[in-house]
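Q: What would this complex look like in 3D?
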Amino acid sequence: MTVTARPAGAIDRMSTGKHRMLGLSLTRIGMGLALLSTYLTNFKTRYLIWGPDAVWSYDDFAARTRHGGPLSLYAVSDSRAWFNMVFFAGILVTAVWTVYGGRPLTVACAVFLWSLDARDYATLDGGDNLAQILIIFMCFTTTNYWLSPWSGRVRRREALRNRRTTLGNSLHNCATSVIAVQTAVVYLVSGLWKVSGQHWRDGSALYYVSHVHEYSHATLFPWVMGHMWVSLAASYLTIAAQLLAIPALFSSRPWFRKLVFSVIALMHVGIMFGMGLFAFALIMLAADATILKDSDYRMMRAWFNRHVVSRLTAVRWWPGHSTGIGAEPVPGIPARRSAPRDETAQRFPAG
Amino acid sequence: MSGTFDIKGQERMRVDFRRLVLAAPALVAAIYLALIAVYNLPGSIPRDRFRKDVVDALDPYFIQNWMLFSPNPPTTNLEGWYQIRYRDRTGKQHTLKPFSLTQAFDVKGQIPFVRARLGREVDVVGRSMVTITRQRLSARKDAAAQALDRASSVAKEDEDFVYRKVGGEETTNRVWSGDLEQIRYLVTLLADELAPPGGTTAVRAFFTSTPVRDPATEKTAPVYRVADSGWLPTFEKGRS
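A: Here is my prediction, written as structure tokens for the whole assembly.
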């Protein structure tokens, strides 16, 4: 019996070339900004939350670390100097990782993130939980193929590796798939739980969310959700989008994937500004970025260029504004050529 | 790289070791995804049967909770209250009106990401409330001092206020029961921070739960007191 051609072909495809590169780069930047906001918005109160004299006592924290809890750099010493050293190093590493990316920095950022979260787990939310998990898998991926000062160098290096099957490619693609599926699982599970909730079923869930003070940040949000038909539609749309996340992820139809995740992205923008949960929404948006394929981004860019950029450039914004193709000549100003010069025709005129 | 094996004289099996190594990450990924599927599916039979084993496998780095405002979103406003009883320099005892910690340290109007962090998950029980309250307290210490001044200026014995405010009924809530110790701890912290000059004789803290108006019936449910420290022993400023 030999290894059949089909699994062998799948293994070869999985370990040749890397996928979802732009999505991962966006995930890195979004998640990095969210983590930085955690550090910086709590900078003044860092001792109260994570310091040696924090509300959750250092002894309890150290005991939890020793008895199976997550490891933390903050558990090494209870001195304030050590705390500050780790804290400032965490800010620095996160900032550099956000800008540059790369595996060693991802590993370092993961260590600092887990150290910080382990110090006070009670202030964490679903976004932090997802960030903790995703950053472990991001350690096996290339997160700086795009949108990084090192991108050019990384792309040149990958251009050589992508032609053959390598363990690095396999690790990258599997970890990226896990990130995408894990994110979709978040939506699926949340959607399933929502279906069993009375307030989600009767359409009043977002009315309630918008009227609880802790989650009503913008004045407009409770007013809009005070209209029960709007609350009903938004609640049902939320459930539908969350339940469709897994089918959309595995769909062969890009429009379906883009539609579902556009609705989910819209939902998170609403959470960000309506409910004021900035870090949570940013982490979720960052995670969503990995779900779309590189081809999806290329199609979106082409669509944007075709329908938005080309129309914007075709508009005459002010009298005398020359926009290229189709622009009318303005007296006194020579018109731009509407088509590239045909050098061949000039050099070898007909006849 | 490949090898051939002869298994009990049967047909020969050729194994491509290189492809096996390349497939190893996919195998690990598949196992992980199977584990989180079992762990997450709400109320499923596999979840009930293998829950403990799966938790052991995922703990502590892959534990996950994705309920996110489900099955039902919060439907009440939780509010922390704080009350001081003290003896002035003439020896007269004053019981101040309770003032709302939640309002005193309301972070509305701040830029979104600051509020996001300060205001997050206040309805998480116990210590989280302590953490956030302390956080707010520290961030808005001036506001706290002003709130205390205002409360002091109208000092009179008016304990009934508390009962009017909370509906005159002591109730317990499943979420909040058992958190009294945490609230006592909160009170000791607050007393330390907020005790007025001259020392505080006693302090209490309690939390109220105000249901959001029912959109169907348009009725507002009564306010419930969900936890109360009761009057706690004497504190002197700076020590407890």
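A: To summarize the key features: The beta strands of chain B are 2-6, 12-16, 76-87, 93-95, 99-100, 202-211, 224-228. The two ends of chain B are 73 Å apart (CA to CA).
Q: Very helpful, thank you.
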